[in-house]
UniProtKB/TrEMBL annotation:
<dbReference type="InterPro" id="IPR035897">
    <property type="entry name" value="Toll_tir_struct_dom_sf"/>
</dbReference>
<dbReference type="GO" id="GO:0007165">
    <property type="term" value="P:signal transduction"/>
</dbReference>
<dbReference type="GO" id="GO:0006952">
    <property type="term" value="P:defense response"/>
</dbReference>
<feature type="domain" description="TIR">
    <location>
        <begin position="1"/>
        <end position="150"/>
    </location>
</feature>
<keyword id="KW-0520">NAD</keyword>
<protein>
    <submittedName>
        <fullName>TIR-NBS-LRR resistance protein RES7</fullName>
    </submittedName>
</protein>
<dbReference type="InterPro" id="IPR002182">
    <property type="entry name" value="NB-ARC"/>
</dbReference>
<dbReference type="Pfam" id="PF01582">
    <property type="entry name" value="TIR"/>
</dbReference>
<dbReference type="InterPro" id="IPR044974">
    <property type="entry name" value="Disease_R_plants"/>
</dbReference>
<dbReference type="Pfam" id="PF00931">
    <property type="entry name" value="NB-ARC"/>
</dbReference>
<dbReference type="InterPro" id="IPR027417">
    <property type="entry name" value="P-loop_NTPase"/>
</dbReference>
<dbReference type="InterPro" id="IPR000157">
    <property type="entry name" value="TIR_dom"/>
</dbReference>
Length: 254
């Protein structure tokens, strides 16, 4: 399952770290692995039936949860033929594994227990062979979710522009990102006055926080050249992540 997920992420163009694929030969595994965890925006944890048997896996998980608390890392748990409650409450195989760890790795047990409790409480995917949980379908959904939560653009705003940081902070504050509502922000000014610069910079910073997003530029010029239908197709295709064809402007609006 992990191999198929890794291949799907790579095919989507998402830089993915998997120790047996990415680690240079001869390099010490642990420091490189911890560094990879720290530098990742998202950590995908696949909880299998025997996951808790491995002190190595539990050490990794504890470090991931630490990155969640200190760096705001996103964790996506996948419960592969185990129930989230088994992970969260240490039931069945997880309970058996911890009975063994209590005698052999007692100094680490408490941090492992807290990490499992926290990770098991995060909403993720449960794959158990039922008709609604076919692996190929789930992998497609997981890759789509990860893709939607990663920045699609890197801002190339010149930070030496006088006052640019203040403008960006002001614009972001007006968006009220934590309000949960809908916001429309207008930036008004003469042509060439620098409206697109802060708008595109803020888009690059926040777009990964949305399931759907799109940046449309030069709308007047593009609509004059190609019609609004082409802009509608671009907008819908990017937001819905599908190849959308629009027959008319009215159809595009609906």
């Amino acid at each position: 399952f992990v191999d198929h997920l890794y291949a799907a992420l790579e095919q989507q163009g998402i830089q993915t770290y998997k120790d047996d694929e990415t680690l240079p030969r001869g390099e010490s595994i642990r420091p490189a692995l911890l560094k990879a965890i720290q530098e990742s925006r998202i950590a995908v944890v696949v909880f299998s039936e025997n996951y808790a048997d491995s002190s190595w896996c539990l050490d990794e998980l504890a470090h991931i949860i630490e990155c969640v608390d200190t760096r705001g890392q996103i964790v996506i748990p996948i419960f592969y033929y185990v129930e989230p409650s088994d992970v969260r409450k240490l039931k069945r195989k997880y309970e058996e594994a911890f009975s063994k760890h209590e005698t052999e790795k007692k100094e680490n047990v408490e941090s492992w227990r807290k990490a499992l409790e926290k990770a098991g409480s995060i909403s993720g995917w449960t794959i158990n062979g039922t008709i609604n949980c076919h692996e190929a379908k789930c992998i497609k959904e997981i890759v789509g979710t990860i893709s939607s939560r990663l920045p699609t653009l890197s801002t190339n705003v010149n930070k030496d522009l006088i006052g640019i940081e203040t403008r960006l902070q002001d614009l972001k504050s007006k968006l009220k990102m934590e309000s949960g509502g809908v916001r429309i922000i207008g930036i008004w000014g003469v042509g060439g006055g620098g409206k697109t610069t802060p708008a595109s910079a803020v888009y690059a910073e926040i777009s990964h926080r949305f399931e759907g997003h799109c940046l449309l530029q030069n709308i007047r010029e593009e609509s004059n050249k190609h019609g609004l239908e082409k802009l509608q197709e671009k907008f819908l295709s990017l937001v819905l992540k599908a190849d959308v064809k629009v027959g008319s402007e009215i159809e595009g609006r609906s």
